[in-house]
């Protein structure tokens, strides 16, 4: 059983990936982090005791920041905040995404700048370890002032309201807590605000996006290698000298991976043997895939900063330094997600162009038109290309940058917002489309190389062929191909 120790710093994508994928994983809180929590909480309690005017502790929120709240109403203020802000709509975030939200929010609170109680961080820890997953609608956040609506749905479950997923069922939070003998959290001053001022929904979805995109970008190279062999592609374009002469490390990396996958193939050609040059979707795989890989490096850097960031407001530094700022603004993650959208959409774009080359009799050499087993009578892979074209066209609309949009809120007090959660959700949708396009390319390429002769494949791609041929059949008759694409898409999500 894996244990992830949270300290308010040092959290990485690799650690989160292990936590999410290893069975029965749990979180623990370091003693130093507990001390951070106790220290910042004492400062908040002193502020309340001396009735100082501090935003969100002894004042209202947003436009109501100038309204003083009496000492005896500070708890009511926090509960009212959570209830009123629980107004998200639409389908719920996936359970793994919400689990990640809780881990990331807990890590932020442990930095000691949020002024929460030990009881709150322990409640989050209990929910995480018991896999009590709040139902969090994915629509309704502007991505500034924090992801207010989504995080409110997370927070309301901690106090025994709202709904949660537990044991595979959607149930009232109150009923689950009673069944497990867990006391609902009683929010203290500042705690409601501390739970919802943050970027965890966009960051958690971004984390899942990154993990899935990283795997798919790696898969896209060997899938392209199968297609390259099915089309008797020219290997000269992958010569190391070509790519080092340009200088992009990711381009060099992809070209090296292609040479490795194609080593020993009897299906590839040299320039001039069959043709002098390949089309760009074959010849420029290192340049295009490499450029998309560049986006992953940027996204990883921004995610790991945000996963360990203090993005609350106000931030507690000392009794004399409780500062209102804007660390809840999601612009860094919004831009990163928009960049990831472009990078992943382009992998799908070039994959669809390779699909066209596999099925088009004007481009696929001596392969049958549309890989039809009986041309005219059977359509073969004809409409598979249509479906892939539809997905990449949809991606082009989803890839429109969310981060360049903004709309004022809270009576113009919050007059610029990031739309980062929209960007993160759209990146997820593009990645899902990308997976289906790659699954389609793989499905068609498996049949194409089988027509050409599996024994002529390179050793490394032959291994891939054998793995995936076990789960889908050769296109030897027209059938419901959506089932085959679903099988391969699911496999690309799971098989390493």
Automatic annotation (TrEMBL):
UniProt PTM comment: Contains an active site 4-methylidene-imidazol-5-one (MIO), which is formed autocatalytically by cyclization and dehydration of residues Ala-Ser-Gly.
GO cellular-component term (any): cytoplasm
Linked residues for 5-imidazolinone (Ala-Gly): 144-146
Listed GO MF terms: histidine ammonia-lyase activity
The family this protein is said to belong to: Belongs to the PAL/histidase family.
Pathway: Amino-acid degradation; L-histidine degradation into L-glutamate; N-formimidoyl-L-glutamate from L-histidine: step 1/3
Record key words, sorted: Cytoplasm, Histidine metabolism, Lyase
Record protein name field: Histidine ammonia-lyase
EC number from the UniProt entry: 4.3.1.3
Annotated organism of origin: Salinicoccus halodurans
Record's catalysed reaction(s): L-histidine = trans-urocanate + NH4(+)
């Amino acid at each position: 059983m894996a244990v992830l120790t949270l300290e308010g710093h040092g959290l990485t994508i690799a650690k989160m990936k292990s936590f999410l994928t290893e069975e029965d994983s749990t979180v623990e809180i370091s003693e130093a982090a507990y001390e951070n929590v106790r220290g910042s909480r004492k400062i908040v309690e002193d502020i309340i005791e001396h009735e100082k005017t501090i935003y969100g502790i002894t004042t209202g929120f947003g436009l109501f920041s100038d309204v003083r709240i009496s000492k005896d109403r500070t708890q009511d203020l926090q509960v009212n905040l959570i209830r009123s802000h629980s107004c998200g709509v639409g389908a719920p975030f996936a359970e793994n995404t919400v689990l990640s939200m809780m881990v990331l929010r807990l890590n932020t609170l442990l930095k000691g700048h949020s002024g929460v109680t030990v009881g709150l961080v322990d409640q989050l820890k209990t929910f995480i370890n018991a896999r009590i997953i709040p139902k969090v609608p994915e629509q309704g956040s502007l991505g500034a002032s924090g992801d207010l609506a989504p995080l409110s749905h997370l927070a309301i479950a901690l106090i025994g309201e709202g709904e949660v997923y537990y044991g595979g069922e959607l149930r009232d939070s109150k009923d689950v807590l009673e069944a497990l003998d867990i006391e609902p959290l009683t929010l203290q001053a500042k705690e409601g605000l501390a739970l919802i001022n943050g970027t965890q929904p966009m960051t958690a979805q971004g984390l899942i996006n990154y993990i899935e995109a990283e795997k798919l970008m790696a898969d896209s190279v060997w899938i392209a290698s199968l297609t390259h062999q099915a089309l008797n592609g020219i290997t000269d374009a992958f010569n190391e000298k070509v790519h080092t002469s340009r200088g992009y490390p990711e381009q060099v990396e992809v070209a090296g991976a292609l040479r490795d996958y194609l080593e020993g193939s009897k299906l590839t050609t040299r320039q001039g043997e069959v043709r002098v040059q390949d089309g760009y979707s074959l010849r420029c795989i290192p340049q295009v895939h490499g450029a998309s890989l560049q986006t992953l490096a940027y996204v990883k850097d921004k995610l790991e900063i945000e996963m360990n960031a203090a993005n609350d407001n106000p931030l507690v530094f000392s009794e004399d330094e409780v500062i209102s700022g804007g660390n809840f603004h999601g612009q860094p993650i919004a831009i990163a997600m928009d960049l990831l959208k472009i990078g992943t959409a382009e992998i799908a774009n070039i994959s669809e162009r390779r699909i066209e080359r596999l099925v088009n009799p004007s481009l696929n050499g001596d392969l049958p038109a549309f890989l039809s087993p009986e041309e005219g009578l059977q359509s073969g892979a004809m409409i598979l290309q249509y479906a892939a074209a539809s997905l990449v066209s949809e991606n082009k609309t989803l890839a429109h940058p969310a981060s360049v949009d903004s709309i004022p809120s809270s009576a113009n007090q919050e007059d610029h917002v990031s739309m980062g959660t929209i960007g993160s959700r759209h990146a997820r949708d593009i990645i899902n489309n990308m997976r289906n396009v790659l699954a389609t390319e793989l499905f068609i390429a498996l049949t194409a190389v089988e027509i050409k002769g599996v024994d002529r494949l390179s050793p490394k791609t032959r291994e891939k062929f054998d793995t995936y041929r076990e789960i889908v059949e050769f296109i030897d008759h027209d059938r419901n191909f959506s089932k085959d694409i679903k099988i391969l898409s699911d496999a690309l999500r799971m098989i390493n």
